[in-house]
Write a structure and sequence with these properties.
This protein is an alpha/beta fold. It is 34% helix and 24% strand. The protein has 18 helices and 27 strands. The strands form five sheets. An eight-stranded antiparallel beta sheet has the order 3-2-4-1-10-9-11-15, covered by helices on one side. A seven-stranded antiparallel beta sheet has the order 5-6-7-8-12-13-14. Helix 7 (261-269) runs parallel beside helix 13 (405-422), helix 7 packs antiparallel against helix 14 (429-450) and helix 15 (453-460) packs across helix 18 (574-593). The longest helix is centred in the C-terminal third of the chain and has 22 residues, at 429-450. The protein binds glutamic acid (GLU). Residues 1-2, 74-79, 99-102, 124-126 line the site of glutamic acid.
């Protein structure tokens, strides 16, 4: 789930590897390491807990050099963050391995390998790969063959790169559930979990497909598919430019972060879905044992994260067959509430330091919840340290105060939680597979939806002179309407309210007139007919409507209504997709209003005070 870089070249590759790791730093990690094969045929290794800079300092003091090497930034899933658990892992000083993802059957493999006499030096799941390859090399005639036999024995998700001291100038890489890309240079080749790591050395890339194993030498790259057939993967010229620390081509961080969503979602999903299922250990080591017992979920969050929780309630009750309550942290912590049996407490916070949420977690611990899980974007934050389980989002640093990519990544995490809990509560294998499939399609759907950018920029002009706005949604789109209203309030200072559309006639209809724009989110779901009626209620009162509707939802633009067609998507991921046009709308309205988009007045990014 974190970073992999590898190189095989005539020149010394140590700087290429460390620079590559540095370019992947924005993903978050807890330790870093490198292994390099020197000219004498020895594997040298350096590992450090903390930043890549510390690894770089270690290498300045004790340099490693050679033409073949692998490097890794780790986000621990099995075994604490420590030097002995950092990658690369070795077997008998012959084999070095880096790995992203989770090997689910590591316990069985470990005891089998111990039975064969292998001694383990770490607590990671990864180390089984090193020893297994070493063991298979006793009968296989090449490193490639040994890795091919090894991966057949692995369950779970991996992107892995292997080096053998005895077969220099080659890397063998394998991908299943965690991405790997091969970079083509002149007389040298590279591998990485993300092309961004390799942009200083090449722009020509081939992306491995699921099940691929490849042998990479200085002169050749030979790729084999899951059945062992030699295959070609297209080599493409990359036009990506990247600098995680600045705004790049964008005027504001918020816009940059809106457009980073496909990448952020992809990173978050990588290595956590396999064989039509959500991997339980995405929620932490031993998560399966706790998740299998959950019968009720209590979600605690604030602000945008609270809206993510509200959406999850619809998902968990409908698909995972468990009951779910959602509450604002500042309310929960000061009132008396009751704990249902087998209840999982879920906190959601981008920073992991939100004071009210943290206080609520501490209180809940005394109340006797079965277990706690946090969904969080910052490794090592207080919520992560103090919860029994943690789902680490991979949204990357979010700088804009108004949350965008963190929200959609939270939703993806909660969709995965629904799949994981559902699997123990009667969710059919088909439904699980469908959920996984729609999550896998999510990054490209998001990309497609962000193409609405220019239409929404034009639409924003209608809001230039408005003081108020009403957002409407039904079902799992109701929290999305709430999030849309919050975004507009936060950055354009327009007063905005969200209502479940069925509530209109119980009060807010009184507000409707030509000065009150009404924004409606309307995917094509079973509530569509009801929503059509609500829209008519507004129309009859002379309201002006902006309807974000599925291309098939049969809304048509006229004098009182502007329809913005949204690409068709699977119902499950619709809340994530419909968030996007609302983010863009609030951004462009704020631009017109001339507010400070990235740092709106009176607000802070990480709310560490009560
Ligand atoms: N599961 C492996 C570990 O805990 C790999 C983690 C990662 O993807 O960084 O070491």
């Amino acid at each position: 789930m974190c970073g992999i870089v590898g190189a095989v070249a005539q020149r010394d590759v140590s700087e290429i590897l460390v620079e590559g790791l540095q370019r992947l730093e924005y993903r978050g990690y807890d330790s870093a390491g490198v292994a390099i094969l020197d000219e004498q045929g020895n594997l040298g290794r350096a590992r450090r807990v903390g930043k890549v800079k510390q690894l770089r300092n270690a290498l300045t003091e004790q340099p490693l050099s050679g033409g073949t090497g692998i490097a890794h930034t780790r986000w621990a899933t099995h075994g604490e963050p420590s030097e002995r658990n950092a990658h690369p892992h070795l077997s008998c000083d012959d084999i070095a391995v880096v790995h992203n993802g989770i090997i689910e059957n590591h316990v069985e493999l470990r005891s089998m390998l111990q039975g064969l006499g292998y001694v383990f030096a770490s607590d990671t799941d990864t180390e089984v790969i090193a020893h297994l390859v070493h063991h298979e090399l006793k009968s296989a005639d090449s490193l490639l063959a040994a890795v091919q036999v090894t991966v057949k024995q692995l369950h779970g998700a991996y992107g892995t790169v292997v080096v053998d001291r005895r077969q220099p100038e080659r890397l063998v890489v394998a991908r299943s559930g965690s991405p790997l890309v091969i970079g083509y240079g002149v007389g040298e080749h590279f591998v990485a979990s993300d092309q961004l790591a390799l942009l200083p050395v090449t722009r020509r890339f081939a992306f491995l497909e699921e099940g691929d194993v490849a042998e990479v030498t200085r002169r050749e790259v030979n790729i084999f598919d899951i059945d062992g057939n030699a295959v070609e993967r297209d080599i493409t010229e990359s036009n990506v430019s990247h600098d995680a620390g600045d705004k790049g081509q964008y005027r504001h961080y918020m816009m940059k972060e809106i457009h980073e969503q496909p990448m952020a979602l992809q990173r978050t999903l990588d290595g956590r879905l396999a064989n039509g299922k959500v991997i339980d250990e995405a929620f932490g080591e031993n998560a399966a044992q706790l998740l299998s017992k959950v019968k009720h979920v209590q979600i605690i969050a604030c602000g945008t994260s609270y809206h993510a929780g509200m959406t999850a309630r619809y998902w968990l009750e409908q698909h995972a067959n468990v009951s779910c309550n959602v509450e604002i942290a500042s309310e929960f912590r000061y009132r008396r509430s009751h704990v249902f049996p087998d209840s999982l407490l879920v906190t959601i916070s981008q920073s992991g330091e939100t004071a009210d949420t943290l206080a609520a977690l501490r209180l809940a611990k005394e109340m006797g919840y079965m277990a706690s899980l946090t969904i969080c974007n910052v490794p090592g934050s207080s919520l992560v340290r103090e919860s029994d389980m943690a789902y680490m989002m991979k949204a990357g640093a979010e700088i804009g105060v108004a949350s965008t990519k963190a929200f959609t990544v939270q939703l993806a995490a909660l969709a995965m939680l629904t799949g994981a809990i559902g699997a123990y509560n009667g969710m059919s294998a088909d439904t699980q597979a469908q959920l996984v499939q729609s999550l896998q399609a999510l990054p490209s759907k998001v990309e497609q939806t962000l193409a609405l950018n220019d239409d929404i920029e034009a639409l924003a002009e209608d809001f230039a002179d408005k003081q108020h706005a009403l957002f409407l949604g039904r079902g799992d789109q109701y929290p999305i309407a709430m999030e849309g209203a919050l975004k507009l309030k936060e950055i354009s200072y327009i007063h905005a309210e969200a209502y479940a559309s069925g509530e209109l006639k119980h009060g807010p209809l009184a507000l409707i007139d030509a000065d009150m724009p009404v924004i409606v989110v309307a995917p094509n779901n079973e509530l569509l007919e009801k929503l059509h009626s609500n829209v008519e209620e507004v129309r009859a009162r002379g309201g002006l409507m902006y309807v974000f509707a599925d291309v098939d939802a049969k809304f048509e633009s006229d004098d009182t209504m502007k329809v913005i067609p949204v690409p068709h998507c699977d119902e499950f991921i619709a809340p994530i997709i419909y968030t996007l046009p609302l983010q863009l709308l609030s951004y462009y309205v704020a631009l017109i209003k001339g507010t400070d988009v990235d740092q709106p007045r009176n607000l802070a990014k990480s709310v560490t005070v009560e």
